[in-house]
Q: What sequence folds into this?
């Protein structure tokens, strides 16, 4: 989303057929045994002989001019082999590129990984060292003298937009506003998405509700801290093993930042310990390479959890104003959203990605969405699972409930009455193709969850979500081995094991061989052409299409071999059920040749068999979901306990159904954490107050209720297996669903995130001071 | 770079001598669940670590004539596995069982929890309410003090250089005594108390509360003894009116701060709510004849 | 820097290593002994990814000094399977898709084994509270709880 689909993209129409492997759960996932035995190798598990430990010195100030850096004492410490700072990295001009779902500017990227003129957030790197042990590296950091001139800072998005706010970038003039403002501000850009005539739409309405919402920044919370191991050789080549969702993007960013040829950088993605959007950016990689170059030894760098929170990740904190107009009959006539998003220390929030999601679940003729991208003294935001969308849905779905109540219409019915369907014009451009949104609402209506009785202080919430599926550059090679097995080399990083399983299922289905005869292997950057990163729910959809294309390419090659053996024309051979067969009885009496037989003979009959795909996938299918949640509110403490949770989502086609459900669980629980307790807290100096798992409160097992899931399948017409992305939609509804459930339970509307006990109790007291004293 | 030394004394005398030599930059290591975190966060850089886990006095749980004594380095899990102790002191165990995850309790000791001097320490309010004393040994000899006199402020204790807490003593409680501790946290587990309340109360034969002690955690620089809150229970049958008075007095006793874990206002309010809930549990246990 | 010589037993093997005082058992396992199954998610005992047992007691290896391992018996994820034969918990984790990225999995398995040793027939709620010291960000815990309950049942011979 947000990125323009290529006009030269690849789409393969949906083929309805009987499936043997796709759509059923394989006995064992290829990555699972290594993961349960501790053998899977993550970036921090990899070592090279002679490696040094690299550590980063970070700014303790939210905003400060760096007057000088003196590393001479650190360099003298025994065991220190290299110290680097801003002078060791080339400066970059303004140059934009896509980093995952978010656009970056290399001028800013180099300043993010190492501060130049100013430190712009607590945790901003200012220097790095490589030493023979961690304790020496840490001691060396303390010997680096940095002279700061502390500047006034600004943390909150609303404060940052005020005319007298401290400026992060003194020359930043808001883009996208006519006429161009004369004065600089922290508003880096304004983005507008519109449809119809918003004024007219509100005039047609009998009821207009406008509400303001605030959400705090939140972190992806992957359990694996960023880790990179790099070696720079005298020949001028760099090799990196790293924790990333997109090794080709990391390679491109490294090459750009270090002014190297792309061909001289090789990146191997290690098994990934969680990313959720936060591992599409370089942080440690270039520093490790420069330290390696300077020291002549491999350098390994691993962030501490404190560094992960302070200097990587978070999604934007926001200020959102939602206004919806509706007729007495329940038809929405106009919808408007003002989205003020923190981008962190440099421009580039998730607004281009989430703006299209604002109202796309509903068929609304008049829409206006205005987004402001606002810089403030925080780490540069990165993508987080449907970046920016849960916060908009928090607003929109809460207002939908309020309208339904006002008009005395059932909450599911009002959504059904306005639901988007095939042919609905979106406010971001295209008309929707076949989608399964109404099916998810109908399934929710029929679900036994809706029949469960609620007790005192208990309530039920409903909310919906939408996210598109990204396509982009995708490459794969399918090698048919001499023994009749197949190896798929894929280039889109498998973030958690489901993708390589789904790819193997697809290849097995295409070739007509058993699942266990296929192995999907993660490529490094040298074994395939460029692949876009794993983002935008594209992994299984786009990588799966490349697997189809590579399989069919290999099948053509196998049919060629059969044609040569039989001495017939290629078009006289067909591939069926794992065998080359004569296309008709007219071709001749030939025994079908199995894949294994062909593979064995291929060397003589033309050479090794491989299939390739180097495509730009387009036509990703939009995904929709509906969630139900029951909560119980403790009126005396404001604690919200979840009792039951149900997720219903259109997956297009679930290749590996149990894994799809597992994705639903995980995303929804991230959304639940976001809703209840997760937030970045800053002190008065702009220093993060809770950079650890103790006080950044992600859900633990005992916080979570039993979760039901239901997969709806409305095939994506532009994918041979009908696949839609599934990973991001289910994090969108929980915020709103829980807010709506709290209202249902105790009659308060929560519009400030997180819905933590102190906030809920304060809202209860405000609503009814008398009952709270009970 | 200075070298961090590590010593494992096997006697109290050796431990005291090492700590006295350490001149304030020696750190006692029991379970290590606070010390290692502080080292990881670069909050402390001791020159010497004195591991006290090999000193037998610090590792024993003993039933004595007048009460129960347990070593300061006994881990949470060791206490949880001691059936008789758990049955005798359910209120203490309410607190101990909340000190972190099972992993953390596998190491963390009550001695460490007390000496870390966090106002939110989960074992402290119930210990205070139960009238626990600590036996301290140092260069000047041995002394016994009430548990509430150890912490003097966040991270600060009354222990002098070279002094260590050896054990805690819980005096036998009168018949009809019940104790309980609860805390409020945003998450169900793995959290730090926003407010903690420990109550011990004794009922006479007539069911009237004859004595009570209320201790509040995380609402001031150290755990607080709320005398007015206790007084609200004494002479009552712990009925609704008494509980209302208890809640009001507990809230009134709070001197909290605003921080990342809670606001002043919230802490004051929840202290009252929890006091009421904890008193009811203590009452139930008193009626059951426990503690 | 002067190092300590520590003799210990890891997964039944006698192991000697050298470490600085400030190095944790997790540092020693991962960086010196290359037993990288235990993971460092936080270094402060808040995520459980580094869980191991020390003389049979479940601990976060990031909260134990390496030097404290002298004379102790340590069990890590590398010793959980019996050769090719997975422990029932490992098998059930695979079957129930109780793992995605897998970074928390070794710690969770060690914790779950400890939990079932103490309580072979836990309720779902006991499993949820018993595993609260292990953060997982991928699975939402649902399948983990199912896997542990199923493994418990199998291990009881039911």
A:
């Amino acid at each position: 989303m947000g990125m323009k689909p290529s006009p030269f993209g690849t789409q393969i129409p949906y083929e309805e057929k009987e499936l043997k492997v796709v759509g059923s759960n394989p006995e064992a996932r290829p990555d699972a045994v290594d993961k349960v035995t501790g053998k899977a190798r993550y970036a921090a598990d990899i070592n090279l002989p002679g490696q040094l430990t690299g550590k980063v010195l970070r700014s303790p100030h939210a905003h400060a001019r760096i007057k000088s850096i003196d590393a001479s004492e650190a360099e003298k410490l025994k065991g220190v082999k290299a110290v680097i700072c801003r002078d060791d990295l080339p400066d970059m001009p303004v140059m934009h590129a896509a980093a995952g779902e978010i656009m970056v500017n290399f001028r800013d990227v180099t300043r993010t990984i190492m501060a130049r003129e100013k430190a712009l957030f607590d945790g901003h790197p200012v220097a790095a060292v490589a030493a023979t042990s961690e304790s020496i590296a840490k001691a060396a950091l303390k010997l680096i003298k940095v002279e700061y001139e502390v500047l006034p800072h600004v943390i909150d998005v609303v404060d940052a937009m005020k005319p007298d706010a401290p400026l992060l970038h003194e020359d930043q003039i808001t883009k996208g506003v006519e006429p161009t403002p004369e004065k600089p501000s922290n508003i880096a850009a304004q983005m507008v998405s519109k449809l119809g005539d918003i004024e007219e739409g509100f005039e047609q309405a009998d009821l207009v509700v406008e509400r303001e919402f605030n959400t705090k920044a939140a972190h992806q919370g992957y359990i694996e801290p960023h880790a990179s191991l790099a070696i720079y050789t005298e020949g001028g080549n760099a090799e990196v093993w790293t924790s990333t969702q997109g090794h080709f993007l990391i390679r491109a960013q490294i090459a750009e930042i270090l002014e190297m040829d792309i061909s001289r950088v090789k990146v191997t993605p290690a098994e990934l310990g969680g990313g959720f959007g936060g591992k599409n950016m370089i942080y440690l990689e270039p520093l490790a390479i420069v330290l390696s170059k300077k020291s002549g030894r491999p350098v390994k760098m691993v962030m501490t959890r404190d560094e992960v929170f302070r200097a990587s990740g978070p999604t934007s904190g926001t200020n959102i104003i939602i206004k919806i107009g509706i007729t007495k009959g329940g038809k929405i006539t106009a919808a408007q959203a003002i989205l003020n998003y923190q981008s962190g220390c440099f421009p580039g929030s998730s607004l281009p990605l989430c703006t299209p999601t604002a109202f796309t679940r509903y068929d609304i003729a008049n829409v206006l969405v205005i987004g402001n991208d606002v810089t403030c003294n925080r780490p540069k935001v990165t993508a987080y699972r449907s970046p920016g969308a849960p916060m908009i849905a928090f607003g929109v779905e809460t207002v939908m409930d309020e309208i339904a109540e006002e008009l005395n219409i059932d909450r599911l019915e009002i959504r059904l009455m306005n639901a988007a369907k095939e042919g609905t014009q979106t406010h971001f451009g295209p008309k929707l193709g076949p989608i399964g949104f109404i099916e998810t609402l109908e399934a929710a209506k029929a679900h036994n969850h809706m029949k469960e009785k609620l007790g005192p202080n208990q309530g039920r919430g409903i909310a919906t979500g939408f996210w598109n599926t990204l396509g982009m550059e995708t490459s794969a090679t399918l090698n048919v081995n001499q023994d009749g097995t197949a190896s798929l080399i894929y280039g889109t990083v498998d973030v958690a094991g489901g993708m390589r399983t789904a790819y193997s299922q697809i290849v097995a289905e295409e070739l007509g061989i058993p699942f266990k005869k296929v192995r999907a292997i993660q490529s490094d950057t040298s074994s395939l052409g460029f692949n876009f990163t794993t983002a935008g729910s594209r992994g299984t959809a786009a990588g799966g299409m490349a697997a189809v294309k590579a399989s069919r390419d290999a099948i053509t090659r196998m049919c060629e071999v059969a044609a040569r053996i039989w001495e017939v024309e290629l078009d006289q051979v067909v591939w069926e059920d794992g065998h080359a067969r004569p296309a008709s009885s007219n071709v001749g009496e030939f025994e079908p040749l199995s894949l294994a037989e062909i593979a064995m003979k291929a060397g003589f009959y033309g050479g090794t068999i491989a299939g390739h795909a180097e495509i730009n996938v387009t036509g990703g299918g939009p995904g929709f979901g509906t969630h139900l949640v029951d909560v119980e509110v403790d009126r005396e403490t404001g604690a919200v306990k979840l009792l039951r949770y149900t997720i219903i989502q259109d997956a297009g086609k679930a290749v590996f159904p149990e894994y799809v459900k597992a994705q639903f669980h995980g995303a929804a629980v991230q959304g639940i954490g976001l809703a209840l307790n997760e937030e970045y807290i800053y002190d008065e100096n702009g220093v993060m107050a809770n950079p650890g798992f103790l006080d950044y409160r992600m859900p633990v097992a005992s916080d979570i209720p039993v979760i039901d899931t239901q997969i709806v399948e409305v095939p994506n017409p532009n994918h041979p297996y009908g696949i839609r992305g599934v990973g991001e939609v289910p994090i969108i509804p929980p915020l709103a669903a829980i807010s709506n459930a709290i209202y249902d339970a105790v009659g308060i509307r929560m519009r400030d995130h997180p819905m933590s006990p102190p906030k809920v109790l304060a809202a209860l007291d405000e609503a009814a001071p008398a009952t709270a004293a009970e | 770079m200075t070298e961090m030394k590590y010593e494992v004394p096997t006697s109290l005398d050796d431990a005291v001598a090492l700590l006295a030599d350490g001149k304030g930059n020696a750190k006692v290591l029991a379970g290590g669940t606070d010390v290692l975190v502080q080292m990881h966060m670069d909050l402390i850089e001791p020159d010497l670590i004195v591991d006290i886990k090999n000193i037998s006095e610090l590792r024993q749980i003993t039933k004595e004539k007048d009460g129960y004594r347990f070593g300061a380095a006994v881990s949470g899990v060791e206490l949880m596995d001691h059936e008789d102790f758990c049955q005798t002191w359910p209120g203490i165990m309410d607190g101990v069982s909340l000190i972190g995850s099972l992993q953390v309790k596998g190491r963390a000791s009550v001695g460490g929890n007390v000496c870390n001097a966090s106002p939110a320490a989960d074992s402290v309010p119930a210990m205070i309410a139960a009238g626990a004393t600590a036996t301290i040994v140092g260069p000047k000899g041995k002394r016994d003090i009430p548990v509430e006199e150890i912490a003097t402020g966040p991270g600060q204790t009354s222990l002098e250089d070279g002094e260590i807490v050896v054990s805690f003593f819980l005096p036998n409680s009168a018949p009809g005594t019940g104790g309980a501790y609860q805390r409020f946290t945003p998450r169900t587990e793995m959290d730090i108390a926003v407010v903690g309340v420990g109550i011990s109360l004794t009922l006479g034969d007539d069911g009237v509360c004859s004595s009570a002690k209320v201790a509040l955690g995380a609402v001031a620089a150290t755990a607080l003894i709320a005398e007015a809150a206790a007084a609200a229970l004494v002479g009552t049958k712990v009925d609704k009116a008494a509980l209302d008075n208890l809640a009001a007095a507990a809230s009134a006793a709070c001197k909290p701060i605003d921080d990342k874990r809670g606001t002043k206002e919230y802490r004051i309010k929840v202290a009252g709510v929890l006091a009421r809930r904890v008193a009811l549990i203590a009452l139930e246990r008193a009626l059951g004849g426990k503690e | 820097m002067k190092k300590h010589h520590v003799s210990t037993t890891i997964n039944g093997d006698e192991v000697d290593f050298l470490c600085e005082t400030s190095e944790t058992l997790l540092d020693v396992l991962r960086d010196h002994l290359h037993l990288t199954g235990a993971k460092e998610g936080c270094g402060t005992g808040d995520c459980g990814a580094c869980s191991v047992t020390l003389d049979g007691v479940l601990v976060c290896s990031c909260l134990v000094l390496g030097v404290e391992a002298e004379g102790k018996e340590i069990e890590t994820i590398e010793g959980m399977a019996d050769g090719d034969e997975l422990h029932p918990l490992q098998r059930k984790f695979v079957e129930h898709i109780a793992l995605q990225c897998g970074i928390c999995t070794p710690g969770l398995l060690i914790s779950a084994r400890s939990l079932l040793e103490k309580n072979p027939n836990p309720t779902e709620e006991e499993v949820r509270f018993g595993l609260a010291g292990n953060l997982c960000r991928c699975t939402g815990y649902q399948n983990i709880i199912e896997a542990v309950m199923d493994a418990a049942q199998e291990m009881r011979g039911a």
User: Anything to note?
Assistant: The first strand of chain A starts at residue 52 and ends at 58. Chain A touches chain C through 60 residues (CB under 8 Å).
